[in-house]
Amino acid sequence: MQMCEPGETExxxxxxxxxxxxxxxxxxxxxxxxxxxxxxxRGDRGLTLARAxxxxxxxxxxxxxEKDGLTLVREYREGGGxxxxxxxxxxxxVDHRVEGxxxxxxxxxxxxxxxxxxxxxxxxxxxxxxSEAPVTNLKAGDLEMDLLSRKVTRAGQKIDLQPRExxxxxxxxxxxxxxxxxxxxxxxxxxxxxxxxxNVIDVHISRLRGKIDxxxxxxxxxxxxxxxxxLQA
Amino acid sequence: xxxxxxxxxxxxxFKLALLHSALFGxxxxxxxxxxxxxxxxxxxxxxxxxxxxxxxxLVQAYRTGGLVRLNQSILERSSxxxxxxxxxxxxxxxxxxxxxxxxxxxxxxPVDGPQNVxxxxxxxxxxxxxxTRPAEGRLATVTDGSVIFVAYDVDEFVGIIPRxxxxxxxxxxxxxxxxxxxxxxxSRSAAxxxxxxxxTAEGVMAGDLTRRAPVVGSGDEFDRLAEHLNAMxxxxxxxxxxxxxxxxxxxxxxxxxxxxLRNRLETxxxxxxxxxxxxxxxxxxxxxxxxxxxxxxAILRLxxxxxxxxxxxERIDISxxxxxxxxxxxxxxxxxxxxxxxxxxxxxxxxxxxxxLAQAISNLLDNAVKYTPAGGNIRFEVARGREGSAVVRxxxxxxxxxxxxxxxxxxxxxxxxxxxxxxxxxxxxALVDAVAHVHAGELLLDRGxxxxxxxxxxxxxxxxxxx
Lengths: 233, 467
Known about the structure:
The complex is a heterodimer.
Chain A: E1 12-16, H1 20-32, E2 36-40, H2 43-52, E3 57-61, H3 69-78, E4 85-89, H4 94-102, E5 107-110, H5 115-130, E6 137-140, E7 143-146, E8 151-154, E9 157-159, H6 163-174, E10 179-181, H7 182-188, H8 200-212, E11 221-224, E12 228-231
Parallel strand pairs in A: 1-2, 1-3, 3-4, 4-5
Antiparallel strand pairs in A: 6-7, 7-8, 8-9, 10-12, 11-12
Helix pairs in contact in A: 2-3
Chain B: H1 7-10, H2 12-79, E1 86-91, E2 97-100, E3 117-124, E4 130-141, E5 147-153, H3 154-158, H4 160-205, H5 221-270, H6 275-306, E6 314-317, H7 318-335, E7 339-344, E8 349-352, H8 354-371, E9 377-384, E10 390-396, H9 406-409, H10 428-438, E11 442-447, E12 458-464
Parallel strand pairs in B: 7-9
Antiparallel strand pairs in B: 1-2, 1-5, 3-4, 4-5, 6-8, 9-10, 10-12, 11-12
């Protein structure tokens, strides 16, 4: 099953999860996506590992024995740890998400989740670290975006975008080569934290596709079945 | 060593009765003792005072008129029939009787002094027998050595005392008995009401959720307790019914997609596997699993909301939120061949949770897009309502919901017959309703913009109180 193709860069991910089945499931999903995964089953052990190893991303369960996820990430950040952290939790409500972000978490995913969602979010986290220097230009194949003048061109041809379409494309280009899910787009581009029952995001994507791909031979914006979308040259 | 008290002894009835009779008994006994003591003391002191007064008078008579006058006084007093209270004796200094009722001083009388002496007097009766009665007297000596002795018949003065004693001994057991009886009666009625409540609870625990405690209408504590118990039982019954309904609905709503899923996988497995068929099947399967997960998440969210979890309440620009949602939904409406018009009033604020409000409005828009056939229209309005409230209204020209089904439509998992075939969890309107409640607002359903009775359309109004 090839839902998410391996990202361009292999990542080292630390999974801190006390449920052994869940931990091995996450580990399998991330390994299949081409990453190297370490697992800890206890909070205190997880913190030690996170501090010792140079991980590209941490996946931290909220409920952990010995040291809960929130405390773990807070102490990790206080100790100067910079690896991005994704909280996993059965408590998927808004307050809990905000709590997680407050202590230094970078993303939040409620159980149960689709494996593609997890893989996509972990990859998005890892890439964030790489592109920390402020960029003014994004490029994917012959598609270029100037973040200062807010101009988009493909093969030198100017493309007019609505403000929201611009932000949508910007997010896709920042994560070029990665799968981004509908939920991620709704969260990061629209700042909504729920799943609409209708295909609102798909319609926005197809409009954007109409603007950037329609008059060109090679399609850049791909649909990844069962997962989301990927912008790839 | 332990032993079980008999059941009777452990009942509240028994304890209350015992306590009641003990308290009442102590009270009655105390009253009787007080009555006895004060009466006896009073009578005795009265008698003593009369005796003193009598002696003083006689001594006075001696002082004014000597022995002759004293003797005369005694004779006069002894001879008055009927009013005879006292018994007298006058003796000269040699111990010879001069006058009086007694033949001589009773034995043991002190020579002189304040002490009283108790002795017996024999009264000859008409039938020849002799009656002996107690008397109490005192002796006084005047200056020539003569002796005055005055006594009173104890029975006449203090004869009432034994009668009082008798009354006390008779009354005490009666009082105790009455108090015990009263205690039993009072506590029996309390225990009966408590028993009724216990029986009701037992019945409910045994599974009969319709059982209710009797309310007699006296308005007392037991009635209030029964009313509260009944209200609680009503709520429990309602919750049990709704959870049973939710259970059934979950089973129904999740069983169909899971069954479909299973069947598809089984048929695919039975066929020779071709790459494109397998991919197609797996894609559809994933979609259905995602639907099931979405339903689970919706159930979780709804349960949290219904349990009163409200998220973060802050000042929300509902106008701005509506504009954002318009921008999100407009393309989807166009795609579905619907005309989408908006009338969003500026600068309307409410106190609320942005995510919840966004989800609620988005659910209403989802429904409108889903149920309105192509060529129809959707209106999205935000305006100021009465009392400064903000009113979010979404009106469509779809099939609508018949008036008698509208109340039902906002309940959990209710998917009206007409929409059973459409995808969706059946939780959309229930969630909007729950969000409205969390914000102290309301969700109202009405007919919409449709034409004729075939498709009257639906108007959903979310009213949120002013900031």
